[in-house]
Amino acid sequence: PSLVVAISGVVIPMVTFYYVGITLGFPINTAVFYGLVFAATSVSITVEVLQEYQKVRTKIGTVILGAAVADDVLAVLLLSFFMSSAGASSHLVMQVGLQILFLVFLVFSVKLLVPKLYDWSQHIPYFERETFLALLICLTWSLLAWSVGMSSVIGAFFAGLAV
């Protein structure tokens, strides 16, 4: 249910603000940009409202929070793809392909690589090893995101989700 709500939470504002932009006479790129910007939600406000009504740990609270997080992830990804493809020409397919490969790498890294890195780091006699490892992952993923034409913030965002 969270994914359906999240997709709706991205598609509805995106389409609405796209048509508002077109109606107001903005170029297509600007209208798409407005739609993508307004597709992102504020998870912190959602959490505060759910906490106020003591619904965070209920089934509906879980669905709402899952949808809010998934909604933000989808909006950030779409905005990143849009921004990286703006002004691109013949290499657009290759660039989007690299970005998709990067996202696949992130999924596998979260499942396989990050837990192994944390297990391995337990043997290092350094008192801030978790912080060091989190920063290393954040900076590495930021650099990788930048190298495939995405904003480095995307890499940092997913590193934050991973750790």
UniProtKB/TrEMBL annotation:
Example of a GO MF term: antiporter activity
Taxonomic lineage of the native organism: Bacteria, Bacillati, Bacillota, Bacilli, Lactobacillales
Name of this protein: Cation:proton antiporter
Bilayer topology term: Multi-pass membrane protein
Protein family membership: Belongs to the monovalent cation:proton antiporter 2 (CPA2) transporter (TC 2.A.37) family.
Entries under InterPro entries matching the protein: Cation/H_exchanger_TM (IPR006153), Na+/solute_symporter_sf (IPR038770)
Keywords, sorted A to Z: Antiport, Ion transport, Membrane, Sodium, Sodium transport, Transmembrane, Transmembrane helix, Transport
GO CC terms, sorted: membrane
Transmembrane annotation, as ranges: 7-26, 62-86, 92-114, 134-161
UniProt-annotated location(s): Membrane
Source taxon at top rank: Bacteria
Gene3D superfamilies membership: 1.20.1530.20
One Pfam family linked to the record: Na_H_Exchanger
Main location: membrane
Residue ranges annotated for the Cation/H+ exchanger transmembrane domain, each copy included: 2-163
Alphabetical GO biological process terms: proton transmembrane transport; sodium ion transport
